[in-house]
Design a protein that fits this description.
The protein is an alpha+beta fold. It has 2 domains: 2-92, Orthogonal Bundle (Arc Repressor Mutant, subunit A), CATH 1.10.10; 96-234, no CATH class. It is 38% helix and 25% strand. The protein is built from 7 helices and 13 strands. Strands 4-5-6-13-12-11-7 form a 7-stranded antiparallel beta sheet. A 3-stranded antiparallel beta sheet has the order 1-3-2. The chain is elongated, with a radius of gyration of 24 Å.
């Protein structure tokens, strides 16, 4: 059975037929998401024929159906899906959520992330190599460390040029400022974090400490509202 289900294309065919009862070739091809990246359907046809030859599916005219053997495999896959979250958190520890987000963030943005957590005010934090972006579990936002944080409008950020010293020379750096704050934020970091939150969770919210320079906090919802994901701590720019 494992030789049958080890491939994602075979899994997608079995899952689709389990959901629909029967399906035509084009429907099964569409359900195998990753084949859209291939230049031909040859790989898909190979796995479809594999399932036919191993009596997992059968063809009736122009439609395909699961055999009795195929139905048993479909039930097994469903059981795996239902229990995977528990298995995964056990295998990889309670930080599974932020590890997954860190891996996804690295893949989507190209930002190299550390492979382990460090402690930050009692919270587990995964940082990038420059230690300017950190990921925490969104539920950690309820900790005492964030008591002074207030919401700030992302629309309130404005581009500005600030003079700073770099290698003994005075240069101008493009950053974003906020009317409620005396410190600034990198435009690149603002863009990459907000884009990740909005594309994966539908929205992005910003929080900051108004009295003094502190890491910016970005999360997908308002404080107190839970969601299945991470929050970001982003280092401020101080001149």
């Amino acid at each position: 059975m494992f030789s049958i289900i080890v491939d994602s294309t075979r899994n997608s065919i079995i899952r689709r037929l389990s959901e629909a009862g029967k399906a035509a070739y084009s429907d099964l091809l569409d359900s195998a998401d990753h084949v859209r990246h291939l230049t031909s359907t040859g790989n898909f046809n190979y796995h479809l024929n594999f399932l036919l030859e191993n009596s997992v599916i059968t063809k009736d005219g122009i439609v395909y159906k699961l055999t009795k053997k195929g139905l048993e495999i479909a039930r097994f896959l469903k059981d795996v899906d239902q229990n995977w979250n528990k298995l995964e958190s056990t295998l990889r520890g309670e930080n599974m959520s932020i590890f997954s987000c860190a891996e996804q963030f690295e893949e989507e943005t190209g930002t190299k992330m550390q492979k382990a957590t460090s402690k930050f005010h009692g919270m587990d934090l995964i940082t990038d190599e420059r230690r300017v972006i950190g990921l925490i579990a969104q539920e950690d936002c309820s900790k005492e460390f964030f008591a002074e944080y207030d919401p700030i409008t992302i629309e309130g950020f404005k581009l500005c040029l600030k003079e700073c010293e770099k290698k003994g020379k005075t240069v101008k750096e493009l950053v974003v400022s906020h009317p409620n704050l005396r410190y600034h934020l990198s435009i690149q970091l603002l863009g990459v974090v907000c884009d990740f939150l909005e594309s994966n969770f539908g929205e992005a919210h910003a929080f900051a400490v108004k009295k003094r320079p502190y890491p910016f906090l970005f999360r997908a919802t308002e404080m107190g509202k839970d969601y299945d994901g991470c929050a970001f701590l982003v280092a401020p720019v101080v001149f």
